[in-house]
Amino acid sequence: MKDADLSLSDRLSTIIHFIDNYKDRQVEQSSYTTALRTRNWIAFCIESQISDPKVTAFLFRELDRLSHFPEYEIGGNHLLESGISLVWGGIYFKNSRMLQIGKKIVTRELRRQILPDGSHYERSVGYHTFIQKNIFDLLLFYKHVLAEDVFYKILKDKFLQSLSYLKLLSGSDVLLPQFSDSNPEMNYWSNEMTSLAQDLFDNEIGSGVPVEEPIAIKVFDRSRFRLFFFRGEILAKDQPGHAHADAFTFCLHVNGLPCIVDPGVSTYDPGSSRSAQRSTAMHNTVFVPGYNSADVWSGFRVGRRPSVIALNESFNTIDYKHDGYFKLFKFQHRRTVVCETDEIIIGDELEGVSVCDGAYTGLHFHPDAQVTLLENEILVRACNMRIIVEGGSAELSSYDYCIGFHKTVSSQKIRIKFNRNKIKLIIRFSDG
Asked: Is residue 75 part of a domain?
């Protein structure tokens, strides 16, 4: 609908063709795809000033069906999208029943899903930006057509909260940290949208700054680097489908550029690739090959989850442990991160055992990083960085870094085998 290379008549013909063949399209009849499609079609009809009786009748039938079957069985962002689209439909068709159902869903789900720190509770940066964009689009539509009522205020407050969180993560970096189900292609928020938001809410940008520290991510912000530590607790108890077995993973950006990264996701299809991308071994944390710190299975399922304990946290230090491997290997993973001005020290300990044969810690590098492995030292030329390894044996190999869905590029990774039960990584920077 937004393809500028197609004429309006061609785009309208595409919609008509879809309607004519709708009975054969089982996937497109789900509540989630219905919610996204109807909202996009309404926006297209308004922007293009198109009023086609066949399209209008089909849109109303679809939204009426959605109003009877919002996606309660999945919940999470799927249910929120049902509510957002019903508000769009209620306004477009001047249908109070549809509008009230949508408002009720959106109000309840925003209060539940946008956490006090401004983050989305599924902990995916990709879905955070997707939901933030959809809230913003609804804000613009609602403000243009209806009065600034209580519902509008809820939308605005939650939007400002989520924007404050995103600004904390992004800073001046060129790429967001891609935790959980995310990849660079899933950043739906743009600089243009930030500028528009600042024009609309000039005096209120910053009023949504959360009073709490980020719940899922600890950000160490230094002049030379930014380190993002992922605490690892699965917060969406009812909807963990986008979670990974990634307790205590981290991302490191140097001079605004990604260096140590989360590999991301390239598929949602259940199978070996999806399982591998959600596994502990595909993150920058301690792992035992073939076993995960959380029981991720199928495409969007999680069974057993690790219990996370915060031991110490301050401006330059974080000290946490989890029991994700205790049942099978009788150790708890304890990770300590100390960030000074020009040095990072990461300590991993397998508490409870003196040695665990087969335990590793992993590091995944951005495709532009240029990594060289010496005997006990890792050189990262693009970041002017070296990593000294103590207590382990490192090996260099490759992995597939996800740049989008069904799009990967080869990159480098390091895995470090524990000699006994402790590994220390000392990361230092130079000026070139």
From this structure: no
